[in-house]
Write a structure and sequence with these properties.
13-stranded antiparallel beta sheet, 288 residues, alpha+beta, Jelly Rolls
């Protein structure tokens, strides 16, 4: 049995001094980025801390994972904070803290950001060989806080030995879905922070080519603002086909998107779980 990772009381979780000193230039980079505001930060956390996070990342065989396998994605997610290993949980708590959310507001220029302690749709993500996530924009509002509008995504990659030939780069597409503007490989201790709205198309649509036993691992956190009751236009995850996907593939992407939309509306109304979503979408798509 491996020795548990010890978290020293004074160990810094997020290097505020390092990144706060760079905020003026980071803000300019974030706002000027194309195809929509985003920033790619290397060495996001202290290397030793990130390495310990990667070493305690739950194995794919763990029953705690929810498996999302349908026409538009093949990945696993773990949103239950109480099931996270100690260090991963501590880092999540810091990235949801008032101090970090304030730093994020200064970076993005979005006032009133709110952290999501429920980790709705976020938390730990993992995809093995053949895993993929079709290009999409994200759902607009929190399923359980109906007046929270999603504003910012933070994705931290935890893949110490990732190889380019395995694929898995996150593709950022233009608003017309005509071309991929940027690709960001899921490299160790690198973070992507981006504005999420109706034009922030992203995904890794080509199946992963990593060998058995390897997986694409990430930590995802989403941030919101509270809107007036009539200020939130509800939209589910909007999957889109690429120009070279062909008629059949494009049709299947669209049909599966409709199933996701139906489920999302039912989830918001009746409080269905993601575990149920996994089963329903798999059945509707014919993938299970």
């Amino acid at each position: 049995m491996a020795n548990p990772i010890v978290i020293p009381a004074l160990r810094p979780i997020f290097p505020y001094e390092k990144w706060t000193s760079q905020l003026p230039s980071l803000r300019r980079r974030f706002r000027a980025a194309r195809p929509y505001p985003h920033i790619h930060l290397k060495q996001f956390l202290e290397p030793e801390l990130a390495a310990d996070m990667a070493s305690e990342f739950p194995d794919m065989a763990t029953d705690a994972w929810t498996r999302y396998k349908h026409r538009n994605e093949n990945k696993m997610g773990l949103t239950k904070r109480e099931l996270f290993p100690p260090l991963l949980g501590t880092v999540v708590d810091e990235l949801n803290s008032d101090a970090f959310v304030d730093w994020l507001s200064q970076l993005t220029g979005i006032d009133g950001l709110l952290a999501d302690e429920m980790l709705e749709g976020g938390g730990l993500h993992q995809s093995g060989p053949g895993g993929f996530l079709n290009v999409h924009t994200d759902f607009t509002n929190h399923h359980y806080h109906k007046h929270w509008r999603r504003q910012v995504n933070l994705i931290l990659y935890l893949n110490p030995n990732w190889e380019d030939g395995w694929g898995g780069a996150l593709e950022l597409w233009d608003r017309e879905m005509r071309q991929c503007v940027e690709k960001i490989a899921p490299l160790f201790n690198e973070a992507l922070i981006f504005r999420t709205d109706d034009i922030s198309y992203h995904g890794f649509p080509d199946p992963l080519r990593c060998p058995e036993g390897e997986s694409r691992k990430s930590l995802a956190l989403y941030y919101y603002t509270a809107e007036a009751e009539d200020g939130v236009k509800v939209r589910s995850t909007n999957y889109r086909s690429r120009p070279n996907d062909g008629l059949l593939q494009s049709s299947m992407i669209w049909l599966d998107k409709q199933a996701v939309d139906l489920y999302s509306r039912a989830k918001a109304r009746f409080g269905f779980s993601d575990e149920l979503a996994s089963k329903i979408l798999g059945l509707l798509s014919g993938k299970r």
